[in-house]
Amino acid sequence: MAGALFLEDLAVGQVWHGGPIEMREADIVRFASEFDPQPMHIDVDAAGKGRFGGLIASGWHVAALVMRDFVDKAPFGDTPMLGLKVDDLQWRHPVRPGDVLSVTREIVDVTRSRSKPDRGVVSMRMTVANQDAVVVMSFLNLIQVPARTV
Protein backbone atom coordinates (compact mmCIF):
# COMPACT_ATOMS: atom_id res chain seq x y z
CA MET A 1 0.00 0.00 0.00
CA ALA A 2 1.40 3.39 -0.97
CA GLY A 3 0.98 6.50 1.11
CA ALA A 4 -0.05 6.59 4.73
CA LEU A 5 -3.18 6.08 6.78
CA PHE A 6 -3.91 8.26 9.76
CA LEU A 7 -6.12 7.78 12.80
CA GLU A 8 -9.04 9.41 10.97
CA ASP A 9 -8.79 6.84 8.15
CA LEU A 10 -9.29 3.91 10.51
CA ALA A 11 -12.58 2.57 11.85
CA VAL A 12 -13.84 -0.21 14.05
CA GLY A 13 -14.54 -3.28 11.92
CA GLN A 14 -11.84 -2.72 9.29
CA VAL A 15 -10.11 -6.02 8.51
CA TRP A 16 -6.82 -6.97 6.85
CA HIS A 17 -5.59 -10.46 6.04
CA GLY A 18 -2.05 -11.75 6.22
CA GLY A 19 -0.12 -14.85 5.30
CA PRO A 20 0.42 -17.40 4.09
CA ILE A 21 3.10 -18.20 6.65
CA GLU A 22 4.61 -21.62 5.99
CA MET A 23 6.00 -23.43 9.01
CA ARG A 24 9.09 -25.45 8.12
CA GLU A 25 10.70 -27.95 10.49
CA ALA A 26 14.20 -26.56 9.99
CA ASP A 27 13.02 -23.02 10.81
CA ILE A 28 11.12 -24.21 13.88
CA VAL A 29 14.21 -25.98 15.22
CA ARG A 30 16.55 -23.10 14.32
CA PHE A 31 14.43 -20.46 16.06
CA ALA A 32 13.84 -22.58 19.16
CA SER A 33 17.48 -23.63 19.39
CA GLU A 34 18.37 -19.98 19.83
CA PHE A 35 15.38 -18.57 21.71
CA ASP A 36 13.24 -21.35 23.27
CA PRO A 37 15.34 -24.52 23.48
CA GLN A 38 12.78 -26.92 24.89
CA PRO A 39 12.65 -30.55 23.68
CA MET A 40 9.19 -30.17 22.11
CA HIS A 41 10.66 -27.47 19.81
CA ILE A 42 14.13 -28.79 19.00
CA ASP A 43 14.27 -32.59 19.42
CA VAL A 44 12.10 -34.64 17.05
CA ASP A 45 12.52 -37.86 19.05
CA ALA A 46 11.83 -36.31 22.44
CA ALA A 47 8.91 -34.32 21.01
CA GLY A 48 7.41 -37.54 19.60
CA LYS A 49 7.37 -39.02 23.10
CA GLY A 50 5.99 -35.86 24.70
CA ARG A 51 2.44 -34.67 25.28
CA PHE A 52 2.14 -33.10 21.82
CA GLY A 53 3.15 -36.28 19.99
CA GLY A 54 5.58 -34.46 17.74
CA LEU A 55 7.58 -31.32 17.12
CA ILE A 56 5.75 -28.02 17.63
CA ALA A 57 6.79 -24.41 17.01
CA SER A 58 7.57 -22.09 19.87
CA GLY A 59 4.73 -19.65 20.40
CA TRP A 60 7.32 -16.88 20.32
CA HIS A 61 8.36 -18.04 16.85
CA VAL A 62 4.76 -17.80 15.65
CA ALA A 63 4.41 -14.34 17.22
CA ALA A 64 7.62 -13.15 15.54
CA LEU A 65 6.44 -14.42 12.14
CA VAL A 66 3.08 -12.68 12.57
CA MET A 67 4.94 -9.44 13.34
CA ARG A 68 7.09 -9.89 10.24
CA ASP A 69 3.97 -10.48 8.14
CA PHE A 70 2.42 -7.28 9.56
CA VAL A 71 5.50 -5.26 8.59
CA ASP A 72 5.69 -6.87 5.11
CA LYS A 73 1.97 -6.44 4.35
CA ALA A 74 1.98 -2.83 5.66
CA PRO A 75 -1.81 -2.56 6.10
CA PHE A 76 -1.42 1.07 7.22
CA GLY A 77 0.86 1.95 4.33
CA ASP A 78 3.83 4.15 5.19
CA THR A 79 2.34 5.25 8.50
CA PRO A 80 4.88 5.30 11.31
CA MET A 81 3.38 3.22 14.12
CA LEU A 82 4.49 2.37 17.61
CA GLY A 83 3.42 -0.81 19.34
CA LEU A 84 2.31 0.02 22.88
CA LYS A 85 1.34 -3.36 24.28
CA VAL A 86 -0.05 -6.81 23.67
CA ASP A 87 -2.96 -8.08 25.76
CA ASP A 88 -4.65 -11.44 26.05
CA LEU A 89 -1.96 -13.37 24.15
CA GLN A 90 -3.17 -16.95 23.77
CA TRP A 91 -1.45 -19.89 22.13
CA ARG A 92 -4.55 -21.96 21.51
CA HIS A 93 -3.38 -24.89 19.39
CA PRO A 94 0.03 -26.38 18.57
CA VAL A 95 1.68 -25.23 15.35
CA ARG A 96 3.49 -28.04 13.55
CA PRO A 97 5.90 -28.37 10.65
CA GLY A 98 3.93 -28.16 7.42
CA ASP A 99 1.22 -25.89 8.83
CA VAL A 100 0.35 -22.85 6.77
CA LEU A 101 -0.87 -19.93 8.84
CA SER A 102 -3.13 -17.03 7.94
CA VAL A 103 -3.70 -13.88 9.97
CA THR A 104 -6.83 -11.79 10.38
CA ARG A 105 -6.33 -8.30 11.79
CA GLU A 106 -9.48 -6.46 12.85
CA ILE A 107 -9.74 -3.01 14.36
CA VAL A 108 -11.80 -3.19 17.55
CA ASP A 109 -11.27 0.36 18.85
CA VAL A 110 -9.94 3.72 17.66
CA THR A 111 -9.31 6.42 20.27
CA ARG A 112 -7.72 9.86 19.87
CA SER A 113 -5.46 10.90 22.74
CA ARG A 114 -6.98 13.67 24.86
CA SER A 115 -3.60 14.91 26.07
CA LYS A 116 -1.80 14.57 22.72
CA PRO A 117 -4.38 15.07 19.93
CA ASP A 118 -1.75 14.59 17.21
CA ARG A 119 -2.01 10.83 17.80
CA GLY A 120 -4.26 8.07 18.98
CA VAL A 121 -4.45 4.40 19.78
CA VAL A 122 -5.82 1.66 17.57
CA SER A 123 -6.71 -1.67 19.16
CA MET A 124 -6.47 -4.61 16.78
CA ARG A 125 -7.55 -8.20 17.41
CA MET A 126 -5.05 -10.54 15.76
CA THR A 127 -6.28 -14.04 15.01
CA VAL A 128 -3.91 -16.62 13.55
CA ALA A 129 -5.32 -19.83 12.07
CA ASN A 130 -3.83 -22.87 10.39
CA GLN A 131 -4.78 -24.40 7.04
CA ASP A 132 -7.72 -26.18 8.71
CA ALA A 133 -9.12 -22.88 10.05
CA VAL A 134 -8.14 -23.87 13.60
CA VAL A 135 -7.17 -20.79 15.62
CA VAL A 136 -3.62 -21.31 16.86
CA MET A 137 -2.92 -17.90 18.41
CA SER A 138 -4.77 -14.70 19.20
CA PHE A 139 -4.01 -11.41 20.92
CA LEU A 140 -5.05 -7.79 21.20
CA ASN A 141 -2.46 -5.31 19.97
CA LEU A 142 -2.50 -1.62 20.90
CA ILE A 143 -0.76 0.56 18.34
CA GLN A 144 -0.08 4.29 18.47
CA VAL A 145 -0.98 5.94 15.16
CA PRO A 146 -0.47 9.59 14.15
CA ALA A 147 -3.52 11.76 13.52
CA ARG A 148 -3.84 14.49 10.96
CA THR A 149 -3.20 18.02 12.19
CA VAL A 150 -6.11 19.12 14.37
UniProtKB/TrEMBL annotation:
Domain called MaoC-like: residue spans: 20-123
Alphabetized CDD domains for the sequence: YdeM (cd03454)
InterPro entries (UniProt xref): HotDog_dom_sf, MaoC-like_dom, MCH/BMMD
Signal sequence interval, chain numbering: none
Protein name (record): Acyl dehydratase
Provenance organism: Sphingomonas kyeonggiensis
Lineage: Bacteria, Pseudomonadati, Pseudomonadota, Alphaproteobacteria, Sphingomonadales
